[in-house]
Design a protein that fits this description.
The complex is a heterodimer.
Chain A: H1 7-18, H2 26-32, H3 37-45, H4 57-67, H5 79-84, H6 107-118, H7 126-133, H8 135-165, H9 174-182, H10 184-217, H11 223-241, H12 250-277, H13 289-301, H14 309-315, H15 322-346, H16 362-395, H17 407-412, H18 428-437, H19 443-447, H20 453-461
Helix pairs in contact in A: 1-4, 6-14, 6-15, 7-8, 7-13, 7-15, 8-13, 8-15, 9-10, 10-16, 11-16, 12-15, 12-16
Chain B: H1 3-31, H2 35-63, H3 69-100
Helix pairs in contact in B: 2-3
The chains are: A mainly alpha, B mainly alpha.
Chain lengths: 462, 101
């Protein structure tokens, strides 16, 4: 049962259990926010007592108002203005009482996880993209893309922090942010793009594997053989997809990291340096508008972990570090990609669709190509988990306890990556929100939530 | 329907979604002639919106009260860049994709 201290509590509970719902006054609604029936229903489900009796929204508001009028920290704002009004008058909750993660990651491990999540198949075609735009235009566009995407993600983090400040502690993922600011459509839009992108990335894995098969065993590029090969790939992929604990296998992630860091980037730089030492001139390119557009698409695609910024932010012990961690991590990654692509293009490695197909040394190139195929096969199911789980949640299928968009980070980064927002189910989010809106009337309830103890302790002490 | 049967139904539905998505990715993978084209289409169509437009829209919706003029200018530039790249890049890359067929 909702624990609201004070004389109004028992009365409100009786009213709610009797089915006589007291209508909250306009003043109370203005003071404590106006939630939709659905929101109240969702919030209150987690506050039902052992008998399953759920207090009605007006009764809860009335109880809160009578119990804690002197401690109200959120004042004068309706739900709408709570989200859209000026920050100064909304809440006493600040980042000083966050983080919620005493065992969270430090800045450097979080930055490392961020860079790992950004690293993906997109870097394979950056050198080829330079052959559409040329060196000067390519580097210029890469700078614009890098700065723009980084700034966009910093804006996203500040939006999330602001929502947290205003009492929306349940907001943790991109989808949550979209829903909190733009409502149902925002949540749907963000979820849809997550599903689409995960599907596209997984499709990209298949395309790369088929291209590598063409380069290594001479698979025909005709539609028929490619389709047959793709159907053949579906067998091991389906088998791997049934291993739900695959996400916990750290060797899978280590393999992927080794292939990208040592195999792709290391080999590219090494071979580019070797080729440039012989003195070839960079290929002359006359950029066209369509070429520049193609380059921009590839440059943006190379930031594959763009949806994982908020899980990485959530994994931080001190979320105030999120801004510089994101800025430095994303800038470094984009600078590294641009440098690698430009170097490889200058060395003549941009003529192949995938940079691995241009590696000169036969044996080591073969090793990298096969390792890349194995890594992509192993990580393909992981790429599909988050999107599948989002669809399951949207369809109301709750078969997996681990389901949740929060798992995106965990699935993508099994090696101790940003395990964002663990174990909030059935407790923290809704209660934390109501508790904070009600001036922590129920500190002990909040303290019972995973990660809620620190907030409860500090707020109750104050 | 018993609870066990309902649970089984949910489990079946839950298992069928990844399988369906797996089949879709394999078939799409066979249809796409090379990786840079896929990267172009996806990067232009969706990731420009995710990277340049959506964060700015969310930020402006929340902070429009307190934004300075340069915030509006930078936000406008980001949205304009994202939209132009999305529209023009998608047309170009889809055209190139069709051409490769």
């Amino acid at each position: 049962m909702l624990k609201v201290e004070g004389q109004g509590h028992a009365k409100a509970v009786r009213n709610s259990q009797d089915g006589r719902h007291r209508r909250a006054s306009p003043h109370q609604e203005a003071r404590f926010g106006r939630l939709s029936d659905r929101q109240w229903s969702d919030n209150l489900k987690s506050m039902a007592d052992a008998d399953g009796a759920v207090p009605s929204p007006p009764a809860v508001m009335a109880a809160i108002a009578q119990a804690q009028p002197q401690h109200a920290r959120i004042s004068g704002e309706s739900e709408t203005s709570l989200l859209r009004g000026p920050a100064a008058r909304t809440s006493a909750v600040t980042l000083d009482i966050l983080p919620l993660r005493p065992n969270g990651a430090g800045p450097l491990p979080a930055m490392s996880n961020l860079v790992k999540s950004l690293l993906g198949a997109g870097i394979l075609s950056v050198a080829n993209a330079f052959s559409h735009a040329g060196l000067a235009w390519g580097i210029s566009i890469y700078i614009v893309v890098g700065v723009g995407v980084t700034a966009g993600n910093l804006a996203l983090i500040s939006v999330k922090h602001e929502l947290n400040r205003r009492g929306r502690l349940d907001v943790e993922t991109f989808s949550d942010v979209g829903g909190a600011v733009l409502g149902w459509w925002g949540s749907f839009l963000v979820s849809a793009q997550i599903v689409f992108l995960e599907l596209a990335f997984a499709t990209g894995f298949v395309v790369v594997i088929l291209d590598q098969l063409a380069a290594t065993v001479g698979l025909s590029q005709e539609l028929g053989p490619r389709t047959l090969a793709a159907l053949g790939l579906a067998v091991p992929l389906a088998a791997l997809a049934n291993i739900r604990w695959l996400k916990d296998l750290w060797p899978v992630s280590v393999l992927g990291l080794l292939v990208y860091a040592a195999g792709i980037i290391g080999m590219s730089v090494f071979q580019s340096a070797q080729a440039l030492a012989l003195g070839p001139e960079p290929q002359e390119v006359t950029p066209t508008l369509s070429g520049l557009a193609l380059f921009t698409g590839v440059a943006v695609y190379a930031n594959e972990g763009i949806n994982l910024i908020l899980p990485v932010e959530t994994s931080l012990a001190d979320r105030r570090h999120a801004y510089w961690v994101t800025a430095v991590g994303m800038s470094s990654y984009n600078a590294m990609c641009a440098a690698m692509g430009a170097l490889a293009f200058a060395a003549g490695l941009g003529r192949c669709d995938l940079i691995t197909n241009c590696f000169a040394d036969g044996t080591s190139a073969l090793v990298v190509q096969w390792a890349l195929m194995v890594a992509l096969l192993a990580t393909h199911p992981l790429q599909l988990y988050p999107a599948s789980e989002l669809i399951e949640r949207r369809l109301g299928i709750d078969a997996d306890d681990d389901a949740g968009e929060d798992d995106i980070a965990g699935h993508t980064e099994p090696t101790g990556g940003p395990k964002a927002a663990p174990a909030r189910k059935g407790c923290g989010a809704a209660i934390a929100r109501v508790c904070l809106r009600a001036s922590l009337a129920t500190c002990e309830t909040l303290g019972a939530c995973p990660g809620g103890g620190a907030v409860a302790t500090r707020l109750c002490a104050s | 329907m018993t609870r066990e049967a309902a649970r089984q139904g949910h489990a079946d539905a839950s298992a069928s979604i990844p399988r369906a998505r797996l089949a879709v990715t394999c078939l799409l993978g066979a249809l796409v002639p090379n990786f840079p084209l896929l990267a172009d289409v996806v990067g232009s169509l969706v990731m420009t919106l995710v990277g340049f437009v959506l964060p700015v829209v969310l930020y402006v919706t929340l902070f429009w009260h307190d934004m300075k003029w340069y915030g509006w200018v930078l936000g406008g530039l980001s949205v304009a860049f994202g939209l132009v790249t999305c529209v023009f890049g998608t047309i170009t890359s889809v055209g190139a994709l069709i051409e490769r067929f």
